[in-house]
Design brief:
Blueprint (H helix, E strand, L loop, with lengths): L5 E5 L7 H5 L7 E6 L8 E3 L4 E8 H9 L6 E3 L3 H4 L1 E7 L6 H15 L3 E16 L10 E3 L10 E3 L2 E3 L1 E7 L2 E9 L1 H8 L7 E3 L7 E8 L26 H9 L1 E17 L7
Length: 275
Amino acid sequence: MKQLSYAVLLLALPVASMAALQTPDASFDAASIKRNASADTRTRFDTPPSRLNAVNVPLRFLIRQAYRVPESRILGGPAWLDSDRFDIVATAAPGATTDAVRGMLRGLLQTRFGLRLHMETREMPIYVLRVARTDGSLGPGLRRSSTDCAGRPAAMAAGRVQCGILVSQGPGSASLRGGSATIESFARLLGDFLERPLNDETGLTGTFDLDLQFTAQRSSSPGAVTPGGLAASAGPDDVPTVFTALQEQLGLKLDAQRGRAEVWVVDTASPPTVD
C-alpha cells in the first residue's frame, strides 16, 4: 500500500467520448518515454501549459488522466499496466491548453503504447450516491452557490476554491473542496477514491460550495502508485471514513448495490519503445 501526497485544483471535465477512444488525437511536438526502475514510491503528474511531466506512473494511471475516467471504470489489460512505471516528458506548441495536452496524451498512448479501448455497459457492484435525509436537507459542508462561473477558470481566492474542486491527499486522509461545482463533477472526482464505479442519483441540480474530509488510502497493485480503492480504517482517528463523512458533512450517502455502469475496457496495449 502506497501513499500519495498532492493537491490538484480542477473542474471535473466530461469523460472522453467514443470518438476519442477510436480516433488518434493531435501529437506532441516532442515526447520522451523512459522506464522508471527506482524503488521510489512517489509519483507526479503535471500538465502546465504546453507541457506534460509524468514521473513514476503506470499506464493505468495515464489512461485515467488522459480520458478523465476513474480507475474503477478501467477494466482489462495485461498485468504490466499496473506494475511497470514510466517517466514521460512531452512538449507541445506554445499556447497549448491543459485540455489540449490531455488530448495529445491520448494520442501518445495510442501511438507509443498501442492502446486500444472500447466502452460498454456492464452489470456489476457499484455505489449509488443519494441524499441521505428523508426531508432532503443537506449537510453543513454542502451549500448552494450564488457564484456565476460562466467563462471563469478554476482558481483559489482568499483561501477559498472558486469555480472548481480542489482535491488534496496527505498521509491517511483526503479532502474535496469545491466552489460553484456541480454534484456530477463532485461525484466523478469522489469516484477516484472508491473501488467500485459511482453513479449519481442525488437529483441535485445547479452548483454548490462543498467541503468534505475523510480517511483515504489509495490502493494499488504491487509496485504501482495508483488511485483505485479506499481503506476505510486508515487515517487519523479524528477524521471519519468517506461513508460517515458524506452523511455528516454533506448530507449524502453511498449505497452499495449491483447496477449498470459504463466502463472502459482495454483491448490491447504494448510495452512502449523507450528513449
